[in-house]
Amino acid sequence: MAKLVKDITSRDEDFAQWYTDIIKKADLVDYSSVKGSMIVRPYGYAIWENIQSILDKEFKKLGHLNLQMPMFIPESLLNVEKEHVKGFAPEVAWVTHGGSELLEERMCVRPTSEVLFCDHFKKIIKSYRDLPLLYNQWCTIVRWEKTTRPFLRSREILWQEGHTMHETEREAREETKRMFKVYEDFQREFLALPVITGRKTEKEKFAGAEETYTIEAMMYDGVALQNGTSHYFGQGFAKAFGIEFLNRENKLVNPYQTSWGVTTRMIGAIIMTHSDDQGLVLPPKIAPTKVMLIPIGNDEEVTKTVLEIQEKLSRKEIASRIDTTDKTPGFKFAEAEVKGYPIRLEIGKRDLEAGKVTLVRRDTLEKVEVVIEKTVEKIENLLEEIQENLYNRALERRNSMLYNANTYEEFKMIVNNKPGFIKINWCGEMACENKIKEETGLKSRCIIEEEQPDGKCIVCGKPGKYKIYFGKQY
Amino acid sequence: MAKLVKDITSRDEDFAQWYTDIIKKADLVDYSSVKGSMIVRPYGYAIWENIQSILDKEFKKLGHLNLQMPMFIPESLLNVEKEHVKGFAPEVAWVTHGGSELLEERMCVRPTSEVLFCDHFKKIIKSYRDLPLLYNQWCTIVRWEKTTRPFLRSREILWQEGHTMHETEREAREETKRMFKVYEDFQREFLALPVITGRKTEKEKFAGAEETYTIEAMMYDGVALQNGTSHYFGQGFAKAFGIEFLNRENKLVNPYQTSWGVTTRMIGAIIMTHSDDQGLVLPPKIAPTKVMLIPIGNDEEVTKTVLEIQEKLSRKEIASRIDTTDKTPGFKFAEAEVKGYPIRLEIGKRDLEAGKVTLVRRDTLEKVEVVIEKTVEKIENLLEEIQENLYNRALERRNSMLYNANTYEEFKMIVNNKPGFIKINWCGEMACENKIKEETGLKSRCIIEEEQPDGKCIVCGKPGKYKIYFGKQY
Lengths: 474, 474
Known about the structure:
Chain A is α+β, with helices and mostly antiparallel strands. Chain A contains 15 helices and 23 strands.
């Protein structure tokens, strides 16, 4: 029974090793012969399919249309927008040959698709009647990272990228924030992540964007994971690409643009927020299997009861599976814990005679006995409770790792002693941001939009312009 | 009104140009700055999403699990299976640089993923208890084609590839045929394609397969489109990759393998089978929008009625849209024809006063008047009728282009005079197949499994071993 579990390193001893153990033991990911790339195994991919399905419905409800762009970008096209190419060129994979022939122009595998969309927009946008254009693409992108970690930083990334074009600045700014809100709500409600949101600094914003809004999730170890961004581009790309439309005054003008994306990083965030030394813990709303049903022994009546329960769960659209393997009950229980099914149900002949089953919550490992007739009702309630408990537990932990630093000395002391995010007053100058980065290793996480500074910049002493979070990051 | 339509070349005059006109005018595809790659625009992608959603449910019902493999294949991995690399190496795109660094080993973008799956299978298959492994992946692949045509032959292809591993030869052969049947049924029922099915010859089978089953759809011009294949690999890849498992007798043996795939080619097949000089024609079961509702004039009561009809359609899960643009009715009608919505509904103030609407079938362009109360019922019936009519019409046309040739002279005469497939007796020797190819340009389509030869090979005169179809292909 303990075999599976014993192989998991304690998260308090070695968080990085613990993370690797979890994704391997829970069959989420495997390494491949392709350096830096991961295999997303069926269980991991099923989580991604759930994420996709929920977000895709939301995008479509708001009027976005899916499409598919080429995966290659000719070098000349990547070069059109100067900030953009500067940001991405160092980390792209270059295709130089087709079969045995050298290409006339090399092409990179898309690290993101702004330039491809702009190239297309230029052809199809002619009038204000064509706007807004609300497009989205589900695909993989490639960034040639030196060091990789599954889900967090990988050479190939599964993601979604929205690209929209608007008649007015106001509309485009609204879209940027609207989609940002979709991400935030999704992560709170479905992934049970108590995320912190705000605006990136000039230094940290997306290459080519006027503004970048970021979702910053704090992991169990106090380190930040940037977990989704939404960008307002203004007319920068439109001007560089010569995208123009006839406005309502019959004048040729440039449209306003946004883009926004989330990736399989979110799966990494779920793991590093909710899981424990027993294995994976999944929020019920995103778990591919909500309940694992484990019949104990080979009893016909037990089997019948389990099948009846599954049938009832299925009618309520609660995904469950029955463990029919020939492993021992103890092994099955441990496996259910490692895999992070929100609830496991145990029932043997004696339970049946007593008219009850045992439910085990994965979040607390608490056992609950319930009479058979009430099983489905209890499961429904428990799933809600677990979802809520995971959020609250993560929120409490996160809050315990949020700090205020009123002086740079205090800031450095916190950095040296406590993991987490540190809030400061900041003058808004990149020099101070750089100094913090150089001296402490911490990067700015986000400018807090709803909070005003209440003191001087802790670095230079000039008037504070922003409240801002700093933290280590993945 | 006629403007949109006039721009479509007649399919009897210039089929290739007609095809290009249809995909451009119906907004299915756009060309991009990436040579040989296409942009699948939202309307085209919505068709693909429908295809995906139906097939994916079917795969999952049969126990297949989705996952995601890397998109790159290191050269050494591609080289493991000799037949396979011979077939694919000439047409792959090679990545040689990551950022500014030359890679130690170049990698190709997957042209198909057998070797990646085998590399993974080797690690995860240990015992007969791990079998069968039923995996599927939705992704894009790259093949460096010299000449391309959207949906038919493109450098980047959206597809699905199933990869399965089995304990016994019998199971693997059954799986090969089972998934082949899934494709065949899907194409007949949903795409209304009267496909011909059979086995590929040695010459035409997949590089590395023991047997390839193929779906051959005949286009309006009599030319074949290979529209889905299912392969039985035997133990070839398993041996090359050293994949072994402990069988029930506790002996280490190689498993038996299959793979199967369909692509966006199916969209090409729909177009070239059902569409006409007025534009796209889509089978209702696969059309993203089943009914386009066109209110005529700006009448409040008309608008209200149209909204009510849409509401009722929506309750029956019949996808409809309302054309609320400020174009003229005539323009809207023409556009609905070009876009191939199975039914368009027209209603103006006078219709409303008379208590009726007009429905126009896209397949026949026939107009049907119906009382408002019966609209939804009539639409339901019409959609079924259209689906059936498209299949029957295509079947009749296909049958009119199937020929028997009893001698090689007869064969050549048919080739020179009539488009279509020609059935012959064949000895099974590649020499005869090659001769036909060289002298007439026709390739073998498929060996007809359910039919026995009834004469000598028309080329060499040796005893006939197979009934086989020959035909030109896309």
